Amino acid sequence: MKIMIICVLITPTFATEMINTVLFDMDGLLLDTEPLWGESMWRIANKHEIPITAGRFKDTTGLRIYEVTDHWALHFPWKGKSALEVAEEILDDIIELSKLRGSVMPGVLALLDLLDANGYKIGLASSSPLRMIEALVTHFNIRERFHCITSADAVEWGKPHPAVFLHCAESLQSMPYECVVLEDSVNGVIAGKAARMKVIAVPDALHFDDPRFAVADLKLQSLHDIDLDMLS
To answer: N or C: which end of the chain has fewer CB within 10 A?
Structure first.
């Protein structure tokens, strides 16, 4: 007697789903404002005689500004203004500085056009406070290009926690496996992967060879390099 064995491969439902949502970081990815943060933080830190060196700013890259000044207060205590007041002063400074000297990063407008033409849902999920995000995307005339804008203000934890990406995806009625995250920072890449999303890293030249970006699904030098096949 011959026995026939039939093997059935059961593929999880999500494996056949297409990515239909793209979530952008802002500073250093959408807007060339990342270097200006260090300048603003250094200026305000000096003003209030906070004993921190510029070299230590990298310790808090990707964190919310309120988390940054809380970190300073713990490790580099000073007298006078509170951590919250210093954070608000830095925000005022970086917003004005970004309007004066910031710019939209190369490849952003072309990519937004490509995504819009192909029916993608487009979100912005940033660790920056909402008042800064709104001020800058409005100033640079890209506010209406996004179907959802989410700040880490809206969630309990900032990057590298995945909350801001998950919140943005939920607002767009997208599942995590339908999303691809575009990020320039290590903390942002970690947050995207923790959210169970595909992540494309676009680091600046100075940090491009940082081995921690190996966590990303793909690493590119510019948003100019992205095509639709990479989003699938």
So the answer is: N
